[in-house]
Predict the structure.
Amino acid sequence: MPRVIDQILESDFRNPLGLLSDCHRRIERFLEGLIVISEQAQENKLNDLQCQQFEVALRYFRDAAANHTLDEEESLFPRLRARQNPESQAAFALLDSLHADHTEEEIRHREVDDLGRAWLADECLSPDNTRILISLLKDLRTTYEKHIAVEDHELFPFAERTLDRAELEAIGQEMAARRGLVVSRSTSP
């Protein structure tokens, strides 16, 4: 059954491309939250609500967003790379660019996580580290804006046209398994 988060009906594992796109909305919201909190608090101690929201967002990027990247890198991208037609060949450069983004995002997220955890543990952050944190977060936002637009408007529609129902179902199964879930297979043709 689809879930409702923030009054938005979300896709489920039977629609893995929709679920990946839904995850993009969460990435945007959590990243914006980290930026707003960092700019509001600067190097000062976070209040209880900021602390809770900051911790949840950091955990999201450590766990859920990491699974999202694996969903693409290990389930979606290899299936698209296996295609051997003119349209697929053009998509290979796109996949290479997205893979490079994932590598850069992972490095920045580790730095953000280290700074964020230090802020939470020490209850303050030096002015220099605050500037570094905000800069990293804004760099991530810029990267994600482009990355997400390419995936939502080019890659996912291409995958929808290119992959058959069984391949999409297998992607959904793999995504669920990454999260320790089991999804029943479709019985429709």
